[in-house]
UniProtKB/TrEMBL annotation:
Designated name of the protein: Polysaccharide chain length determinant N-terminal domain-containing protein
Keywords: Coiled coil, Membrane, Transmembrane, Transmembrane helix
GO molecular function, one term: protein tyrosine kinase activity
GO CC annotation, single: plasma membrane
Keyword Manganese: no
PANTHER family: FERRIC ENTEROBACTIN TRANSPORT PROTEIN FEPE, TYROSINE-PROTEIN KINASE
Domain of life: Bacteria
Coiled-coil region list: 178-241, 346-390
Length: 465
């Protein structure tokens, strides 16, 4: 009886174990077969993918050019790289450009493959550097390398196009500014040339030479004035010694050298002498006395007439006697000659001083006019220099600006050449097998947990009860 009671639970347990074991074994085998079959099929069907890597470095240097223009000024051109900017990273701009459709199309054309087969490269920007790392995939190692080289050539081409476009956009306004500066320079030069012709300022040192001439004339005037004063003192002293004024002495000397006057004076003197002798012998009405008196009067009239002709002024007997008596006497001819010479020298010096005064006044007036014109001429020259400086600076900056092609688009250099991969990057066999193994383990573990869940639940219920 007891044996029969034991056989019944054992049979039930055996049936239960046999049914559950088959079901869980089937699920475990099916799950693992699915996992491993899918993985193996993926490895067989999926074509390998190779990745070629290369790296670019962006130049972060800045440069400047400073050109001295003699007599004009300076022209400066500087270029600051966008790498050092704190507002943006030029590598991000390049990342957008390098993955653009235009670059990919160009790269596909260079690599001679369809556009849809040229996928976007994977770009990594290394922190705290100017390096850009590229990964380009291909069906074979050579294809991946060729696609990398084609991508690099397409990138360089696109950057060159962008730089050229930027230069052309900058050049147009600069060319307009240069043309405007050239026109201003030509107008300033034209105004300067026309004013030079009108003003009479033919050479730069003209005003300086004119000032030197005026100073030289002033020295000549001072010397002439000093000579005039010295001659005048001699003339005054000599006239004082003679007893006549300088003008009277000159008149007396003029009468002295005139032959007709001297002949008339001789006749007058002889008639006077004869008349004095006759007056001692005869009376005033004696015929000889009357004859000599008439002769004397005729000679006197001739003297007055001749002296008036020579001196060109009215003459009286008193003045004539004074002049005639001054001429007579031993040694007085030399004194009169010196007096006349001094007077002539004085007049010559006075005329020279007057001429110098007139010339100095004329030159001073001209100097004043030219100084005013020189001021305007300097303003026009300054305008020309400013126009020349602006034109030369604009022209120089236009030429130097050709070197500023790396401001917006920094220089790109190949840091690491595209490599030729020796192992495929996808599919990764080790990762797939490891994943399959992990899947098998987890699926089996899950089935085991499901297997033992009922006994544990019953034990837990009893324990709770």
């Amino acid at each position: 009886m007891t044996r029969q009671l034991l056989i019944v639970p054992i049979v039930k347990l055996k049936n239960l174990l046999t049914g559950r074991w088959l079901r869980y074994a089937f699920l475990s085998v099916a799950g693992n077969a699915l996992i491993w079959g899918t993985s193996i099929q993926y490895l067989k069907v999926t074509k390998p993918t190779y990745t070629s890597e290369f790296a670019l470095i962006l130049s972060g240097a800045s440069f400047g050019v400073n050109v001295n223009l003699p007599g004009i000024g300076q022209a400066t051109s500087s270029s600051s790289s966008a790498i050092g900017s704190s507002t943006y990273d030029a590598r991000a701009n390049y990342e957008y450009i390098f993955t653009s459709e235009a670059v990919l199309k160009k790269a596909a054309a260079i690599a001679k493959i369809p556009e849809e087969q040229f996928s976007k490269p994977r770009i990594k920007l290394l922190d705290n550097s100017t390096i850009m790392q590229f990964e380009v995939t291909g069906k074979s190692p050579k294809e991946a390398q060729n696609k990398s080289l084609a991508l690099y050539q397409a990138m360089v081409h696109q950057i060159t196009v962008l730089r050229t476009g930027e230069i052309n956009q900058r050049k147009d306004p600069t060319q307009k500014t240069l043309l405007s500066s050239q026109q201003k320079l030509e107008r300033a030069q034209k105004h300067l040339s026309e004013y030079k012709l009108r003003s009479g300022l033919s050479f730069p040192d003209q005003i300086g030479n004119l000032s030197s001439n005026i100073e030289q004339l002033r020295r000549q005037r001072a010397e002439a004035k000093a000579q005039e004063n010295a001659t005048n003192q001699k003339l005054q002293q000599l006239a004082k010694n003679i007893g006549l004024s300088p003008q009277e002495a000159a008149d007396a000397f003029l009468l002295r050298v005139d032959q007709i006057f001297q002949q008339n004076l001789k006749d007058y003197s002889e008639a006077t002498t004869t008349l004095e002798i006759l007056m001692t012998k005869y009376g005033p009405n004696h015929p000889q006395v009357v004859k000599e008196r008439i002769r004397q009067e005729a000679a006197l009239a001739a003297l007055l007439e001749r002296s008036q002709i020579l001196l060109e002024k009215p003459m009286t007997t008193t003045i004539l006697n004074r002049l005639a008596l001054a001429v007579n006497g031993s040694g007085r001819d030399t004194l009169f000659q010196n007096l006349v010479t001094y007077q002539s020298d004085q007049k010559g010096l006075q005329s020279q001083v007057k001429t110098l005064d007139s010339e100095i006044q004329r030159l001073e007036k001209r100097l004043e006019i030219l100084s005013q014109r020189q001021s305007k001429l300097e303003n026009l020259k300054r305008d020309v220099q400013i126009a020349e400086a602006m034109f030369a600076s604009t022209l120089t900056k236009l030429d130097l600006g050709q070197g500023d092609i790396f401001a917006a688009y920094p220089l790109v250099q190949m840091l690491v050449e595209p490599n030729l991969p020796d192992q495929p990057t996808a599919p990764k066999k080790s990762f797939i097998l490891a994943g399959s193994a992990a899947g098998s383990i987890f699926s089996t573990l899950g089935l085991c947990l499901v297997w033992i869940r009922k006994p544990w639940i019953e034990k837990l219920s009893k324990w709770l009860s």
